Amino acid sequence: MNEKNVFCYVMVAPALLITIVLGVYPMVDTMLISFQSYDLLTVQSKGTEWVGFDNYREILANDKFLQTVLQTVIFTVLAVGISVLMGLFLAQVINADFRGRSVLRTVILSPWFVPPVVASAIWLWLLETNTSPINSMLLDAGIIERKIRFLTDSDTIGPFSIPMLSIVAVRCWNGLPIIIIFLLAGLQSIPKSLYEAAEMDGGGVWAKFRYVTLPMLRPVLMVLFALLFLGGFGHFEMNYIMTGGGPRNLTNVLAVWTYQEGFQFLRYGKAAAAGGIVLVMCSIISVFYLWAQSKDNRS
Amino acid sequence: MASIEIQDVRKSYASLEVIHGVSLDIEDGEFVILVGPSGCGKTTLLRMIAGLESISKGQVAIDGSIINHLPPRARDIAMVFQSYALYPHMTVRKNMGFSLKLAGVKPREIDEKVNVAADVLDLSHLLERKPGQLSGGQRQRVAMGRAIVRNPKLFLFDEPLSNLDAKLRVQMRSEIKELHQRFKTTTVYVTHDQVEAMTMADRIVVMNNGHVEQTGTPMELYDNPLTRFVASFIGSPSMNMIEGHLSEQGQFELPAGNTIDLSEVASDEARGQKIILGIRPEHICVGGQGTSLGNAHIRVVEPTGSETLLFVDAIGQPMHVLDRTRSTFNAHDVVPLFAAGEDFHFFDAETGGRLPKNG
To answer: Who among A193, A203, A218 is closest to B73 (CB)?
Structure first.
């Protein structure tokens, strides 16, 4: 090993150490726990017996858990889909040259300055049935006849419910700015001459978006989707703070379920198994992302 | 094919006017080149014809119909950009067929037209490649293919050869000219390279500071430049400009004290004022006959094979001399220079306008 290599390893070592201690070790340990009967209430009397896939079998046989898995996917798909669509639109708007653009930029990006926990608290108040100013405005305007129970209505249409959509809306609100920043950077890297060429080729607004903007944003969108899906599957704060997974488990997601299973019911083995499921879901996204990226590189 | 009428076209950015009333008629099938230094407004004028820039005042008409307010897509104009502006995510085939696809042409017909254009441009073997896998010259051809596949009324070229190396530029010059001879589509071509303009154009429009200095065939501009600017811009190496006072007797008095006898060629109008005498480097002979320009001190010799460019100090100023006699010259040689009176150009020292000669 020459001097240059030693220097490189020394420089990388702190980051590597932190990743191993705070990332790899807990993950491996959690996976090991997921194969053990690890219940904090009985751990002293029964110990941590190796039970293979029993924890996985048990949670996958639990309807509430399956509902939670489905909801995690729905929450993520809805939040990612809606916010990326809105992001595409708003990024184009604030990329355009018009008077008052900087004011609009500040307004659109302002939710970014609010941490998710604070955003949850703010929206918890804004969406609380009796005190909600949104309800008051809608009632005053005559749009609704009775108050909407944004976070407590347990009626459902398929897997969808008002609390679910409310939390999705808040997640979009809070997550939108970073998406816009990503897309804006992507938009600004598209040469203007491509749009001009498309105009000369006979393209209107839609053709320019469909055949220039979207394909040119593809690398940014790929990274964005991968990040948002990975983050979305592990999302915790808003669902936990705003509804705690209720009503009737309708807003529960895997991260909240895992937290409750582990730290409320102290069933570490099952919580770890739920973590294992999240890991599998994230791995699928990662593999898909890497495959798409290598396909792009090949072409 | 189409004719274009440009009438008193002006372009302003806020209060700053950059094109000051350009008027130009381009005939059906003509190859017109807009040439001028950077910032003279040639690209802006081209983009106004394309519809990519709005027209502040005046009007542009194609075949008699005013197109000022039509968007680019409604003008039936194809444009080749300086950067080529090929869609990097599309194959050559898709790049070339894109305009037809947008126009709703059937895929089979698009394929046929693309294949024909690819054949003409020798691109058939590259149709499934993406622009990133092509060389500069190939990209340039694809950009042209994208334009010709549409069979538009008008071709616009915005400095299309400026990103190519010198050899390829020469090759592409002749290819573009050949294409024009084949398709006879009206073409407006922008370049800052006067050699491109001279070699390709039916007619050259020399622009400077947002207005047209002179319009004419390449040889008209070369032989009879109407302004000092055109004289120095057209021709390579550029014309030698010698400033001095022309006496009533026709003696051209130079600041260094020596005189040149121009009594034979100087018109009455040119006499008795400060003028600029223009002589092209290729019209100056080392030795020989004609009007004597005195002895020159050779500073640098640049032989190119067919000709030799000499950088000399003569009549009190640096000058260029282009010798085609294959004589041998050495730096620091002192040689006599002569030039024929009919090759002299006179310009007003104040206005830069051309002054008449005798004969």
So the answer is: A203
Residue B1 clears pLDDT 80, i.e. is over it: no
User: Which DSSP helix (H) or strand (E) runs through B129?
Assistant: none
CA nearest to A214 within chain B = B89
Last residue of a domain, one of B173, B208, B229: B229
Q: Is residue A97 part of a domain?
A: yes
Residue range B282-290: mean pLDDT, rounded: 89
The enclosing domain of B290 has a CATH number of: 2.40.50.140
Q: Structural domain of residue B68, as residue ranges?
A: 4-229
φ and ψ at A258, to 5 degrees? -65, -45
Domain check: are B36 and B178 in the same one?
yes
Yes or no, beta carbons of A201 and B73 under 8 Å apart:
yes
Last residue of a domain, one of B197, B229, B261: B229
B359 has pLDDT over 70: no
Q: What is the pTM of this model?
A: 0.85
Place of tokens 């398709």: B183
Å between B154 CA and nearest CA of chain A = 11
Domain, as residue range, for A165? 30-298
Q: What is the CATH number of the domain that holds A108?
A: 1.10.3720.10
Strands B317-323 and B273-279: unpaired
Closest CA to B179 of B34, B304, B340, B31: B31
Please report residues of A whose CB lies closer than 8 A to that of B150: 201
Question: In chain A, how many domains are there?
Answer: 1
pLDDT string in tens for chain A (299-residue length): 678 889 999 999 999 999 999 999 999 999 999 999 988 888 888 888 899 999 999 999 999 999 999 999 999 999 999 999 999 999 999 988 888 888 988 998 899 889 999 999 999 999 998 888 999 999 999 898 888 999 999 888 888 999 999 999 999 999 999 999 999 999 999 999 999 999 999 999 999 999 999 999 999 999 999 999 999 999 999 999 999 987 999 999 999 999 999 999 999 999 999 999 999 999 999 999 999 888 877 76
Separation between Cα atoms, residue B173 and residue B109, nearest integer Å: 30
Cβ B83–A193 below 8 Å, yes or no? yes
> DSSP letter at B238?
P
CB contact under 8 A, B71 and A211: no
- Report the residue of B81, B133, B149 to disrupt the A interface, i.e. the one with the largest count of A CBs within 10 Å: B81
Number of structural domains chain B divides into: 2
* Residue A285 DSSP one-character state: H
- Whether the complex's predicted ipTM surpasses the cut of 0.85: yes
Task: Clarify whether residues B183 and B248 are in a common domain.
Answer: no
Q: Do B51 and A199 touch (CB under 8 A)?
A: yes
CA distance B166 to chain A (A): 24
Q: What is the pLDDT of residues B208-263, one digit of tens each?
A: 999 999 999 999 999 999 999 999 999 989 999 999 999 999 899 998 888 898 88
Tell which residue, A193, A297, A217, has the closest CA to residue B163: A193
List phi, psi (to 5°) of B121.
-95, 5
SS3 of A261-277: the string is HHHHCCEHHHHHHHHHH
Amino acid of residue A124: L
Question: Chain B: residue nearest A299 by CA?
Answer: B130
Mean pLDDT of chain B: 93
In the three-class reduction of DSSP (H, G, I as helix; E, B as strand; rest coil), residue B111 is classed as helix
User: Is residue B273 located within the same domain as residue B182?
Assistant: no
CA B159 to chain A, closest CA, distance in angstroms equals 14
Of B308, B299, B304, B302, nearest in space to B327 by CA:
B308
